[in-house]
Amino acid sequence: MKPFRSFLLILLLATPHLAHTAPQFGYAAKRHVSELRHDGYDFIIAGGGTSGLTVADRLSEAFPNKSILVVEYGDIEYAPGVWDPPKTAWGDTSGMSSRWALNSLPSPSLNNQGAAVIVGQSVGGSSATNGMFFDRGSRFDYDAWSDLQTDDGRRDAVGWDWSGIYTYFKKSVTFTPPPISVANQLNYTWDKSVFGNTTPIHASFPPFQWGDHYAVRQAWLEMGIRLAKECATGDKEGVCWIPISQHPISARRSYSGVGHYSDVVGSRSNYHLLVKHQVTQVIYAHGDVEAGPPLLEIKSLVDGQASNLTAAAEVILAAGVFGTPAILQRSGIGPAAFLRRANIEVVHDLPGVGANLQDHSGPQVAWKYTSPPPFSPMPTDMLDPVYATRAAADFDATPATGPYTLAMSNTAIWVPLSNITAHYSDLMQQIRNLANVSEPESLHLPPEYESDATLAAGYRAQLLALANMLSNPRAPSLESAFTTGTAVSAVLLHPLSRGTVRLNLSRPLDPPILNYRSASNHLDVVLHLHHLKYLRRTVQAPTLQGLGAVEIQPGIRRQTDEDLVAYIRNTTVQSYMHPCCTSAMLPLAKGGVVGVDLRVHGVAGLRVVDAGIFPMLPSAHLSATVYAVAEKAADIIITHWSRG
Fold it and tell me: Are 281 and 294 contacting, i.e. CB atoms less than 8 angstroms apart?
């Protein structure tokens, strides 16, 4: 394993609770265009988040004689873990690095409630502010991605299936097993062969669990859910241990701002980062989209100065699921009808820009204990000043130990639909029937889909892919994670509903308008219902019953499907912070925005490398997949330019 030598870590070890200040470790960061190269750059990357910095690191390493510039909206900040000292309330997310707190338009099918979404706004992007859960999807997710690229059932030529992306999952992370004493104490299992050990993005298991953690794990085993040794192999079913994105010695958050910037930039004179600048649009001279790469127009967030930057090779968009569609739409690249309504000149009609929005969602099951169980330690212990002081000291030890090493969660279940309901075959047939309806309005889609045959065709292809995948008894449909407490969530991994991202016409440089349209497809409510009824069995398992557990949500009085559907419509969390798919990697005839080489369809010198390129949601939290996609994207770009 490579030593962890970032300037940031040295600073943190010297001043362990430097919570909200911005450490001056950005010795290569630029803050004004006057500091940039006067002759332009070979590659310019819009967005210094998870994917943008990964690609910048790999390109600057592979091409020492080419120049790379990353333009980032935010600034360099210390990115604390989900739960670092001095906070004493576990689950308190205050004090995290800068982020946007966005809200979608109301979803009529969920009682007009909107989705609340957090997006990173500093160097490192969402990897600097996420829950640190570091899991991969099922192999069947990525096989479906590949199948969607062709019409004849063959896999795509670039290899976006599991076998083609697995190498990049391994390349993108260094996993460090826990000490044997910790593994034996906490019953951790893993398979180190499915991880790499050559990158400065780290994942590990925390040397701590709350006292009630194993009660729910045991309840899930009593429900008949299998115990999995490792769930990063592509075979993702059962009760799993999941590593978290933290360094194994310091237990500090490991994220792209450290691993793919500060750890490497000191030795790379060709790798530049410009902070506090917004990418406003890409500009094709005279509207000639074949004469790329485009200029990149940027605006300083300090003095408002606008500038154009020149890329000799290509411009790479990594501004995220919401930011990239906004840049394209401001540039006149997107759905022509919307652009005309917005009085934006149509440079290139690309209907899929900002379509296909997806996220994980679901309701909760909650309970109470009728008598205080003998759990220890528990989050309430942190209210004792002596315990909290000792916990902070343990966190600052080498290696770090104690409760502060624990992030949001590192245990979860993934359950196939065939294990959840005996009616799964009927449900899959309903999905296939929906894919074959002739009237676009019957697909429960945004109005744009009804007027564009390519968007409707792409959605039909996704429905068939989902039906085939969920019919597989090894492909998960439900996720539920747990660390401590008295609630678990029934997370729908593969929603059928689709939303949109559209430019804010009154404030076009602000974050765009999100329309999640959650549960607009009625079959999502049916799937939520089956998931909820299944997850309620957790409370009835012998271990929790032995502790006097009594269900309080949905509650024992809600037993009919009608009552449970009403509960789902009123309480479903619409975003578990996993938005994706708004610049989808699909053929143009299926409403795609980029091809398998991640080039934007129909324009020259422009690629997208962020989570927007996912065609469909994977059965995972998104961080690990974004890193793997970025690693593969970098290889695609390097291979192309190495050939001249």
Answer: no
